[in-house]
Amino acid sequence: MKSNGPFSLKNIQRQQPKVGWLVWPVVWGLLFSAPGPARLQAETGSPTGDPPPTATAADFAQGEVLVGVLRAAPLFSAGRAEGEQALAELAGISVNAVEELRISDAAEAPRFFRLGVEPGTEMATIARLRLEPSVAFAEPNWIVRAAVTNGEESPTPVLPNDPLFRPNQWGMQRIGAPRAWAISQGSAIRVAVIDSGIDFSHPEFAGRLLIGKNYVTPGLSPHDDSGHGTHVTGIIAAALNNGEGVAGLAPNVLIDPRKALNSSNAGTVANIAQAIRDAADECARIINLSVTLNENSSVLEAAVNYAVGKGILLVGAAGNSAPNPVLWPAAYAGVLAVAATDIQDQRAYYSNTGAVDLAAPGGLSNQLIYSTWPTGIKGCTAVPTGYCTAFGTSMSAAYVSGAAALVWSVRPDLTLLQVRNLLLETARKTGAPATDVGAGRLDVQAAVRRALWSDIELSQTRISELALLSAPAYTETVTLENPSGELIFWQATVTSGSGWLAVQPAAGAIQTSNSIRYGEPAQLSVAISPTLLPAGDHTGSVQVLGSRSSGSQVIQTIPVNLAVRASLHSLYLTWTSRQTTGLDWQTANAGGKQELQMTDNSSIGLLLPFTYTAESLAVTDVRLYADGFLIFPALKSVASLPVACTPDETPASEAVYGWWSDLNPGLGGTVNTFTSTAGAFVAEFLDVPLAGSPGERVSFQMALFADGRVKLNYAALPKTVGEVVVGMEVNDGLLSTRIACRKGNTVLGTLPVAGETISIGATDWR
After folding, report:
1. Between helices 269-281 and 298-309, what is the axis angle to 10°?
2. For the sheet containing 387-391, what is the strand order?
3. Which of 292, 369, 294 has its CA nearest to residue 335?
4. Which residues of 165-174 are buried (b: 16+ CB within 10 A; e: fewer)?
5. Which among 286, 479, 667, 714 has most CB atoms closer than 10 A?
6. Catalytic center residues
7. Fold (CATH) for 149-416
C-alpha cells in the first residue's frame, strides 16, 4: 500500500506485477501478467545474466527488438555509423534495420534503438545482446492494449437528446460534474489522448480537434478505426449543452489525438513511447493513457519520465485483470494510476489493485458508461448512431483527465504536483481499501472548488498603457472577486513603480482595502501619472494580498506596463480587458468553418458578414495573411514585411495582429474562417508551425465584431518567442494598440499566454 500524502517521484515505490502465466480471455481484450524482462544497470553496463523473458508471439511485435545502449558505450566510440554497424552485427541483422528512437534526452538515459530482426529470433537476439556490456537493456517491442471491456446492450432507455443525460450518464452525476460545470467548463488547454484515434467528423468535437498524429500508419490522419479512442475522448471532452448526444467533463479543451493503437486496440511500446514524447514536445498539458501493458519497458518508462519532467500530468488506466497488481504505464511513479468504481463507489470486480492513486466510475455490464463512437463503426443498437457504451478502467482514466483539465482551467498557475495532489486530497472516501481505490473516488466538484477556494480573482491580471508625455494622471479600475464562501480581507500596495504608479481611494466603492465575500465584488483603483516619467517604456507592479480567517494568505501580482511617447495620433484604440481565466474561444455557427489553403507568405481577400466599424473605419472586407495578421480593407494588399516595434506604415495602415510572426501554414496546421455563434467574424489559426521552427506551433483566433470590438484568443503559443507583434493599428498606420512587441533587443508590453483572451475596443483620447 502506498501513502496518500504529497506526491514525490523519489519517495513513491510502486508495487510491481507478480510473475505468472494467465490465459487472456477474448472478452477482456488485454494482456495479463507475464514475467518482466531483465534489465541491466545503466551505471555500469554489467549484464545480469538473466534469461530472456518468456512470452508468446502474441505478446510482442513480431520481428522487432528494443535496445538501450549506454551513451558512453565503447560500442559507439568510433562514431555513430560505426556504432550502428556494430549493433547490427551483434544482433545479426542489416544496418538498415537499425532505427534510433528519440525518447529521452536525459544525460543518464541510454540511447534507444528499434531493431528489425527475423521473426521467431526475437528472444535469441535479446539474449545475445544482453551479454554485451555496452547494452543497458534489450526487450521485445511489447504489445500495449486498450484497458476497456466492450459493453453489452444496455437495458436502460436510449440516450435522450439532453445535454446532461441524467438517465444514463450516472458517472458524471456521481463525481459532481453538473456543479463543477457551474464553475468551469474548461479552457483551450491541450489534452493528448494516446489511443486508437478520433472520429474527426463527430459533431461533439467540432472546432476543438488538433491535427494529431498517426503512429500506426504514418502519414495518414489519426482516424479512429476501433471506437475506443473516440469513446475515451468523449468522456473527457464531448460538447456540453449542444442538444444532442452525451456531455463531456471538460467540453472546452483542445483535443490532441495520437493514434498508437490499431483497429484491434493494440499497439507497440515504441509507438506509445514516441506518442508520449511528441505530445510532451507539442505543449500537451495532460496525456490520457487508457492502455495497459503487462511488462515493464525501459523505453516506455523513459518516455513517461521525459513528459513528467516537462510538468505534464499523465493519467493511466490501472487495468482490467484483477486480482493482478496495477499494470504499466499506470504502474510508473510518474503516472496517476486510476482504478474503476461502480455506482456504489466500490471497486469494480475487474479493476486491478495495489498501487492505485485514485478511482473513478468505470462501470459494470449493467452499469455502462455512455460516450461518443465513430459513426462508421458498428456500435450499440440501443444507442443512437455516433454513441455507444463500454466499461473498464479506460473510462475511469478519462474521467480523471477531464477533471484535471477543469482544475487547470480555473487555476492555470498550478504545477503538475499541485494538480495531482489536489485531485487526491479532494477524493471522496468510500470505505474501500486504498489498494482498491487509492485516495478515494474522484470528486470533480470538490476539486474545482478547492482550486478556487479562498482565492481572489482579478478582472485584469495585467495593465498595459500607452500615453503622451503631457497626459494627465488617470486610473484603471480592477474588480476583485472571491469565488469561495470564506470571507477574505484584502489590501493592495505598489511593489514597484513608485512615483508614477499608486493605488488610491476614490469615490464610491473604489478602495485600496476591504473585505470580500462570494457574490460581493470589490474594486481597486490603480493611478498612473505619465507626466512624472521621461519618454520610454516603464514597468511597475501592484500586489493584492488576501488574508483568510485561518491566517493563511493568497497573493496576486498585477504587472503594469507604461509606454510614454512624445507624440501620438489624437485617437487610438485602448485595450479594455485581459482575461486569464475563461478563455472566450469562439465556436462556429450552423454555417460551419471554411478551411483556407494557405502557404508561406500567402494572403487572401475575404468578405465580412457585416460592415465592420471602428473609429473612422467602415469596411466590408479584409485581407488575411499567413503570417498571423489581417488588414482592412482587402484591397490594401501589402507585402508581409518583417516585424517592427515602432509606429510605421507597414504592413498596413489599419491592421489586427493576432500573432504577427513568420508563420507557415504550408508546413501543417489549418487556417479557418467562420461566423461564430456570438456573431463575430473569426480568422482561426490552429496548430500552425513557425516557418523556421516547425516544431513550434500556434493556435489563436482574431475575432471582429460589428461594433468595432476585437478579441484575440490564444489556445497554444510557442515555447520560444522570436519576433512577434500582438495588437491593432488604425488611423493612417500610427501606433494605436500594440499589446506587445518583440524584435531583437526591443521588448514592449507583455505577450499573451495560452488560455488568455485580449479584448480591444475604441475609446477617445483621455
Report:
1. 10
2. 149-150, 387-391, 369-372
3. 292
4. beebbbbbbb
5. 286
6. 195, 228, 394
7. Rossmann fold (3.40.50)
Stretch(es) of the chain classified as CATH 3.40.50.200: 149-416
Q: Which of 653, 646, 692, 686 is nearest to 669 (CA)?
A: 686
SS3 739: strand
Among all chains, which residue has been given the C-alpha cell 473516440?
230
One-letter amino acid at 519 equals G
* Share above pLDDT 90 across residues of the chain, in percent, rounded to a whole number: 36
Where in the chain are all domains bearing CATH 3.30.70?
57-144
Spatial separation of the C-alpha atoms in residues 600 and 624, rounded to whole Å: 13
Sequence-distant (6+) residues with CB within 8 A of 590 are none
Residues 6+ apart with CB under 8 A from 413: none
Using the predicted structure, report yes or no on whether residue 696 has a pLDDT greater than 50.
yes
What is the C-alpha to C-alpha distance for residues 360 and 475, in angstroms, rounded to an integer? 49
- 577/464: higher pLDDT: 464
Choose among 407, 377, 390, 403: nearest CA to 350: 390
Dihedral pair phi/psi, residue 232, rounded to 5°: -60, -45
Where do the CATH 2.60.40.10 domains begin and end in the chain? Answer: 457-567
CB neighbourhood size of 305 (10 A): 18
Please give the CATH topology (third level) of the domain spanning 57-144: Alpha-Beta Plaits (3.30.70)
Q: How confident is the model at residue 16 (pLDDT cuts 50, 70, 90)?
A: very low
d(CA 735, CA 573): 9
**Contact yes or no for 387/430 (Cβ under 8 A):** no
511-562 pLDDT, tens digit each: 666 778 766 788 888 888 888 888 887 888 888 888 876 566 777 788 888 8
Query: How many CA atoms does the CB half-sphere of 454 hold within 13 Å?
Result: 15
CATH superfamily, with its number, for domain 457-567: Immunoglobulins (2.60.40.10)
Integer Cα distance of 446 and 453 in angstroms: 10
Cβ neighbours of 355 (radius 10 Å): 23
Phi and psi at 620, nearest 5°, equal -120, 0
Task: Spell out a b/e string for 538-563, using b for 16 or more CB atoms within 10 Å of the CB, else e.
Answer: bebbbebbbbbeeeeebebebbbbbb
What is the band of 254 on the pLDDT scale with cuts at 50, 70, 90? very high
Q: How many angstroms separate the CA atoms of 405 and 451, rounded?
A: 12
Quote the CA–CA distance of 61 and 268 in Å, as a whole number: 7
State yes or no: cis peptide before 752, omega within 30 of 0. Answer: no
Counting runs of H as helices and runs of E as strands, what totals does the chain give?
11, 40
Whether the link from the prior residue into 323 is cis, omega within 30° of 0, is yes
Q: What is the DSSP letter of 353?
A: B
